Amino acid sequence: MIARRVKVPVRLLHHEQPVLEQIVITSGETSGLSVTPLLIRELAAQFPSVHITAMGERAGEGLRLRASEWRHRDFDVYRFDYELDRAGDEELTLHIVDDDPPRSAALEILNRCQRAIPRRNRHTQGARFDRVLAAFRRLHDLDKPLVRADYNHALDTFQWLLRLAPDASLALQLAALFHDIERLDSEADARIEHRAADYIAFKQQHAVRGAAKARAALEQCGIDAATCDRVAELIGEHERRSGGDPEVELLNDADALSFFSLNSTGFADYYGPEHTRRKLVYTLARLGSAARHHLSSIHLRGDVEELFASCSG
Prior knowledge:
By secondary structure, the chain is α/β, with parallel strands linked by helices. It has 13 helices and four strands. It has two domains: 20-116, no CATH class; 127-312, Orthogonal Bundle (Hypothetical protein af1432). Strands 2-1-4-3 form a four-stranded parallel beta sheet. Strand 1 (20-27), helix 1 (37-46) and strand 2 (51-53) form a beta-alpha-beta unit. Helix 12 crosses helix 13 (302-312). The protein is globular and about 55 Å long.
């Protein structure tokens, strides 16, 4: 059973990053779950650039994960992220054993892995975007844990955007990639946002400064002035829903979904429950109603889920 596949002719990520090319899903021996054609079609619709196969197919080398481990409260998500980031295979396979009923964990797991998926659209094919990605990678010292987290979040936001808006414009995709670039100046070694006397003002200053930094970086990559202007406009507004600019709202949605799916665990461990609860309230307010259905397929660690329930109920 093979899902449809859209082959990307150029690699999405820098050569040091893995590219997730294949997903193999099998059922646990006694789980009561089965890998159905409907599940494969649903995953293919969300991740059309990945080759998805069902049980009975051999996974070969790659990362392996049991759904029951993934959903365990003590699952070491940091080790899993490290193994994904350091896999180093140009065509990485992820083997998921879906052994935790009553619902499949495959989409939850892929939400965590999508930064390694080589998805683009017609606006970002070719050498120009390759140059941007290479320049973006060079800006990041990935030996610094906080910089690595921001780099992964940027790629993840970019992928969430393409799931929400498959034909997103070049400017909007660039804005998704560069939206937090200001943190390379202010928070590469330590986070400071929890010290802000006025959190909303702090986040808006972050957006405005990031807009200027992104414009300068993109100009050096040869991106035209009109596109640079639009990218700067989008980033400058990305911390608040505009109420009138659909692209700003899409950027908010992608950024917010990435926080929930990729960043919330690390955020809670770094800042503790009090500031995490404030962040959850702030991020949920940025998430539009049309994008909220994705929350049902995002797995939150137990303590974060409890905080989320207390602020969203």
